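task queued by scheduler; priority normal; single chain, no ligands, no partner chains; default sampling; output format set to structure tokens
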Amino acid sequence: MNSKFSIIGILLAVLSIALYLVALSSWGSNDGLTSVISPYYAKFLSLFSSTQLSGPTLAAGEAHLTEERSIYITIGIALFFGALAIFLSLFSIKRQESLIYIIAALLLGNAVFVLYSLKTALFILVVSGCCAIYLQSRLTSDYGVNP
């Protein structure tokens, strides 16, 4: 079987967990003086800006990219990758890929939401599980199939 989308979902889920753990680690050591994540964003954003870098913050017009905002951006990217992994696992059900990879992508995509909030993760797991059951039942039923 070709399990391309499931494997991509698993890789995105693992990347999202790693990004979230980096953000949590950076949040724990955030004292306002040291910067862990913001220099990377500053280097990336300096490619698109003519503003000079000045220490741990990047001044772009009126907004300043601080370590705290960099942490929020990293958490947002991690949650987006987790949601994308869940979406790819649901799309893999429609393509009838390997069930092991589908479940792994679904659960690992939900794992980043467990790190964020248990209530949110439980809600997303129930909704994505219902969607998975619905998609699987649509594939196995005769409803909508032309004889």
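post-processing summary
- Residues 86 and 106 are 5 Å apart (CA to CA).
- The longest strand covers residues 58-60.
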